[in-house]
Every structure is written in C-alpha cells, then in structure tokens.
Design goal:
The chain is α/β, with parallel strands linked by helices. It has helices at residues 31-46, 77-81, 89-94, 111-118, 145-153, 155-164, 170-176, 185-200, 204-217, 222-236, 240-250, and strands spanning 7-12, 15-20, 52-57, 62-64, 100-104, 107-109, 121-125, 129-131, 168-169, 181-183. Helices cover 45% and strands 16% of the residues. The longest helix is centred in the N-terminal third of the chain and has 16 residues, at 31-46. The structure holds coenzyme A.
C-alpha cells in the first residue's frame, strides 16, 4: 500500500490497482490527483513485477466525475494551455509502456472519460455513465476528448456527445465501442482482474511493442504504420522471451516469460 493523499496503489501479484480516492468529490481530478497519479505510474513503470495496471475510482458511484471544477477559477489560459507540456495523468498514461485497463465503476465524465480514453482497454459496470459535459460549463474537452473519443467511436457519435454534453449508459457505450466489456457492478473487479491476469502472463516486451504498434495506427498513415510494425516485430526476435515462447510451444508446456 502507498502513502498518497488522493490515490491508493495496491499490487495483486502482477497486477497493480491505482485507485483515485476522493469519493466525497466523486473522484474528480484535482491537481494533487494528477501529481500523485503521475508519481505512482512512474513507480509502477519501474517495478518489474508489475505487468498490468488497472485504474479505477473508490466507491460504487463514480469512476471519475471529471476535472475538479473547484480549481477552475484559479486557472488562466496560459496555465491551461501549458497542460499540454505537463505531466498529467492523461499524458503519463499515453506513454506508459505497460497495458493499462480502465475499470469504470460509475460516473465517467469529462476528464474521467478522457482518462478512460487514454487507457488501453475499458471495462465498465452496468451502472456506469459516460459524458463529455464540458459544454455545459461553457468550455470544451481539453484532456484528449475531442481526439481520442472521435478516433474510438467515430465523428458523428463523438460530435453528439461533445456538443450536447448528454450522458450515455453503459449499454450504449458498449454499442459505440467506447468500452470493451460491461459487467454487473458486483462482478466488475473479478472480471477485470481476470482480464488483467490473462494479459499479465504474456511476454512483457512483446506487450510493450504491441501497445506501441497499435497506438501508432491512429497516428500514422498505413505505410508508416506497416513500416513501424515490421521494425517492432523484428525487435521481438532479439528477446529471450521469444525463445521461451517458441520453445514452450514446441515442448508443449506453458511459457514462463521474464521480460527479457
Ligand atoms: N469537480 C469538483 N467536485 C465535484 C465534481 C467535479 N467534477 N463532481 C462532483 N463533485 C462534488 C460535488 O460538488 C459534491 O460535493 P459537495 O458534497 O461538497 O457539495 C460531491 O462531489 C457529490 O456530487 P453531487 O453533485 O452532490 O452528486 P449527484 O449525485 O447529485 O450528481 C453528478 C452527480 C456527476 C451528475 C454531478 O456531481 C456533476 O454534474 N458533476 C460534475 C460533472 C462535470 O461536469 N464534469 C466535467 C468537469 S470539466
């Protein structure tokens, strides 16, 4: 366990749970949450025993209800624009080399939706609700919402969510491809851990390279993407894990990947 004020970090074998822990404020993202979340991710990145990270919120009501609106009065255009260069949770998740799963256990709004979008896979409970409600505050998404949501669910659907600020339920989010799976709230942690454990058993270097290649797909044209893929594919052939994977298959046993 950790000594953070606004988050907790718990390791269960090869899976780490990073939980945003401000339930009285529906786990909204204060600057402290960003600061502590970024520091925790840096530790988890270095910890060789951690293979997968799950991000969630405390309680049964909210994953993350957006940016902490109470901090908005102190913000200037310059401080807000500079978040692009700062280590926010969005930026840190985006470049995090290990798989990150968003476990969405309730309200997933504004910066919360953007946080989930920065993750690699999204798993939600049936009571989860999604929106980009910034328009209701007279502003717009600024943590990647207009870009990642559009790439994930398409322009028409993203446009409607962003222009209306309306909430959609988990079934609609699933239909849109915004979340990969929906489970009853009581089963959410177990099902998410099952998925995380399955991924955690794979070869860590290959996981990292897969992530890099898939993320590059929406940031490049096809020729550049195929070029990058084959280069990353070649790197796999320099790893001990590739040898272990191939040997284990031929010897009809389970591979034991070391991340080397
Ligand atoms: N920032 C700061 N505080 C927030 C917050 C946010 N994004 N979302 C909720 N809270 C706080 C509320 O102010 C309230 O605090 P209080 O008890 O000290 O008054 C507490 O969390 C509980 O929220 P409340 O509004 O009473 O719960 P509810 O069940 O009636 O409504 C929501 C839930 C999510 C519909 C409502 O809280 C909401 O609209 N939140 C803002 C969502 C948003 O616009 N996010 C994007 C920001 S860019």
């Amino acid at each position: 366990m950790s000594n953070y004020e606004t988050i907790t970090v718990e390791k269960r074998d090869k899976v780490a749970f990073l939980t945003i822990n401000r339930p009285d404020k529906l786990n909204s993202l204060s600057s402290k949450v960003h600061e502590e979340g970024v520091a925790a991710l840096d530790d988890l990145r270095r910890d060789e025993n951690v293979r997968v990270v799950v991000i969630t919120g405390t309680g049964e009501k909210s994953f993350v209800a957006g940016a902490d609106i109470s901090e908005f009065n102190d913000k200037t255009p310059v401080t807000q624009r500079n978040t692009f260069y700062e280590k926010t949770l969005f930026n840190s998740i985006d470049v995090f080399p290990k798989p990150v799963i968003a476990m969405i256990n309730g309200f997933c709004l504004g910066g919360g939706c953007e946080l989930a979008l920065a993750c690699d896979i999204r798993v939600a409970s049936e009571n989860a609700r999604f929106s980009q409600p910034e328009i209701n505050l007279g502003i717009m998404p600024g943590g990647g919402g207009t870009q990642r949501l559009t790439r994930l669910i398409g322009e028409g659907r993203a446009m409607e969510m962003i222009l209306t600020g309306d909430m959609i339920d988990a079934a609609t989010a699933h239909k849109f491809g915004l979340v990969n799976h929906v489970h009853p709230l009581a089963e959410l942690a177990e099902k998410t851990l099952e998925l995380a454990n399955k991924i955690a058993e794979k070869a860590p270097v290959a996981l990292q390279l897969c992530k890099e290649a898939v993320k590059f797909a929406s940031r490049s044209n096809l020729d550049e993407g195929l070029r990058r893929e084959v280069d990353l594919f070649a790197i796999c052939f320099s790893t001990e894990d590739k040898q272990e994977g191939v040997s284990a298959f031929l010897e009809k046993r389970k591979p034991d990947f070391k991340g080397k």
